[in-house]
Amino acid sequence: MSAPSMTKFVMKRPWLKRWMQPLSEWYANAAGYRKIGLRVDDLIPEESDVVMLALKRLPPKEAYDRVFRLRRAFQCSLSHQLLPKDQQTKPEEDYLYLSPIIKEIEQENRERGDLEAMVVNNKKKSKS
User: Fold this and answer.
1) In whole angstroms, what is the distance from residue 42 CA to residue 63 CA?
2) How far apart are CA 27 and CA 15, in angstroms?
3) In Å, how far are 23, 39, 59, 88, 102 from 98, measured between CA atoms?
4) Is the dihedral of CA 52, 63, 95, 57 positive or negative?
């Protein structure tokens, strides 16, 4: 599910981080999802089993807030209007809440696959 990311590469280099930070903030604002009240993890499609399981693991308050944000954004889209400035998502409110759970589930699936593929060889004792 996770896409390749250059985050670790950029974060290890302070000069590159300073150069990329304004660009990333500009891109997040230009994307427009904050103007209709969404967070970045609200844009993840729910078509994957991993994402569906992650949504089930969300705390009830966070799940309710997510549904509210999605319905409000859908209403804004239908009416072709943006939210007022005070209701738009601010950059400090736009944090990852679903991605860490998705990564955790992907790690569990990898571990499960490794354990299921494990072959155990019993050493036979030779009779003397």
Assistant:
1) 11
2) 19
3) 24, 10, 11, 20, 6
4) negative
pTM of this prediction?
A: 0.77
In this structure, are residues 94 and 28 in contact, taking their beta carbons and an 8 Å threshold? yes
Task: Tell me which long-range contacts 102-110 makes (C-beta under 8 A, separation of at least 24).
Answer: 102/1, 102/2, 102/44, 102/50, 102/51, 102/54, 103/2, 105/50, 105/53, 105/54, 105/57, 106/1, 106/2, 106/50, 109/50
Could you give the CA distance from residue 98 to residue 101 in angstroms, rounded to a whole number? 5
Distances, alpha carbon 32 to alpha carbons 26, 95, 105, 116, in Å: 10, 16, 29, 44
Residues in the chain: 128
Q: What is the pLDDT of residues 23-76, one digit of tens each?
A: 888 888 888 999 999 999 999 999 999 999 999 999 999 999 999 999 999 999
Distance CA 11, CA 69 (A): 30
**Is the Cβ–Cβ distance between 108 and 116 less than 8 Å?**
no
Site of tokens 């005070």 = 86
Handedness of CA 64, 65, 67, 71 (dihedral sign): positive
